[in-house]
Amino acid sequence: PAVSALHALAVRSGHLPADLRLANSLLARYLALGSHASARRLFADIPRPDAVTWNTLLRACLRSGLLPSARQLFDQMPQRDLVSYNSMLSGHAAAGDMAGAQQLFDQMPERDVVSWNSMLGGYTRLGDMEEARRMFDAMPERDVVSWNSMLDGYAQAGDVKMARAMFDGMPRRSAVSWNVVLALYARVKDWRECLRLFDAMMAVGAAVPNEKTFVSVLTACGSLGDLERGKWVHGLVRQRWERIVPDVLLLTALLTMYAKCGVMETAREIFDSMGERSVPSWNSMIIGHGLHGQSEKALELFLEMERSGPRPNETTFVCVLSSCAHGGLVLEGWWCFDRMVRLYGMEPKAEHFGCMMDLLGRAGLPTGSENLVQNLQGKASPALWGAMVSASRAQNGSRLGEFVGKKLIEMKPAEVGPYVLLSNIYAAEGRWDDVEKVREMMKRDGAEKDVGLSLVGSSEPVTRLGTEDGAVVMSMLGEMGAHLKKPATEPQEPKGREGRDATRTCCA
C-alpha cells in the first residue's frame, strides 16, 4: 500500500513517468514485494527504459526461478551490459544448465571476476571438478570467492588431499575457507586434524570463528571425549554470545558434546533452554542417556518426544534400541522395534537389526536372534548380514553364525571375511569336510588371494600371511580371543579327522 501510494503521488505531481531514476526505484520495490502486476504496469508506462530498468526485471525473474522467462527478456533487451550478462550467467549456473552458461560465457564481449566465479561455482556445484579446475587455471585474476569455490567443490567430493592442498595454497583465507575444511575433517571423522586446524585458526587470528566453526569443533571434541577442550570452546561461544545467534544447530552440537562425554546434567540444561528442538537434539539426548547407564531415562525421553516433540526418524530408533540393548530392556526394545514398523511404517535397516541382535545377545536369547535372522531372508543387504556376525559370535551361537555366514557368501562378497567366519565355525566343531568345502567355494568364487594356513602346534611349515590377509588375521585374533576368555576345562579328545591336527584353525 505504501509503495502504491507513493507511486500515485509521483504520477499526480508529474515526476512520473519522466523521472527514470524514481521509476527504477519503484520498479525494484514492487518486484521485491512480489507485486508483479503493478511492476508490469509501471514498466509499460516508462517511455525509454534504460539498462538499469531491464536488469532490475531480469534479476527479478531469476530470483523467482523463471529461467526461460529471464532468457526471453534477456534476448529482447535493446542493449546489454556486463551486469546483464553476469545475471543471466548466474541464472544458468544456479539452474545447473552449464551448457547454456558456457555458451553465454563464450559469447560475452567482456568478462570480470564475477563472470568467472559464476562459471566456477556452477561446475563445482555439479561436482565437475575437472571442468572447474580448467576454469580456475584459466582465470586471469582470482579472489577469495574463486578459491573458496574450488575448496568447497573438493570438500563436497570428499577429496581431503586436494581440498587441503587448495587451502594451503590460498593467498588469503576467509572464515568460509576455514569452516569448509573444518567441516570436511569432521565429516570424514578426522577429529584430531579438525582440532589442530582450529588451533591454527585461532593462532593466526585472521578469521573470526562463527557458528559453523564451533559446530565442527564441538563435534570433534565430543567424538574424542575431550571434555576439557569442549568446555573451553563452550566458553568461547559464551564470549561471542552477542554476535553469535545460538541457533538449533549450534546448541545441538553443544549438548551432543556434553552427552558424549557423559555430562548429562549440562546436556539436559542446554536441551531445556532450547526454544526449538530438532530431531538430532532429541536423538543426542536419548543415546547419551543410553550409553551412560541410564536406559530408562532414554526410554522416557523417547516417549516425551512422541508426545510433544518432532516425529522420530530412523536414527531415533537406532538410538532408543541401542539404549535398550545397553540396559538389557528386552521387552521395551521389542516394543520400540514393533512401533517403528507398525506405527511409523519404517523399513528396518542394518543398524536396527544390529541393535536387536545386540539386545538379544546380551540377554542370552539365541532363539529370538535366530527367529529374527530367519525372517530377514530376501530383504537383507550385505551390510545387514555383516551386522549379524558380531552378534552371533557374542551369543556363541554356531548355528546362527553358520546361517549368517552362508547368507554372506551367497551375495558373492569380494572379501574373504565371510568365508573365514564360516570356516572357523566349522573348524571349532571339528567339521573338517565342511572346512574343505568352504575352501573350494573360495576358489570357485575367486575370493582366495594367495591365503595360507596358519597352523598352531604343528610341525608343518607355516605360510607367511601378507598385508592382503588382514581380514584373515583379524578373524583369527577374534577366534583366539573368544577361546581364551572361556574357562579352562579338562583336555578333550580331538574331534578332527584322522591325519589332521585337531587344534588347527583353518582360515582359508
UniProtKB/TrEMBL annotation:
Biased amino acid composition, Basic and acidic residues: 492-508
Gene3D superfamilies with a match to the protein in the record: Tetratricopeptide repeat domain
Domain of life: Eukaryota
PPR repeat segments: 50-84, 112-146, 174-208, 278-312
One Pfam family from the record: PPR
GO BP annotations, alphabetical order: RNA modification; system development
Any GO molecular function: RNA binding
Disordered: region residues: 483-508
UniProt-listed PANTHER family: PENTATRICOPEPTIDE REPEAT-CONTAINING PROTEIN (PTHR47926), REPEAT-LIKE SUPERFAMILY PROTEIN, PUTATIVE-RELATED (PTHR47926:SF485)
Descriptive protein name: Pentacotripeptide-repeat region of PRORP domain-containing protein
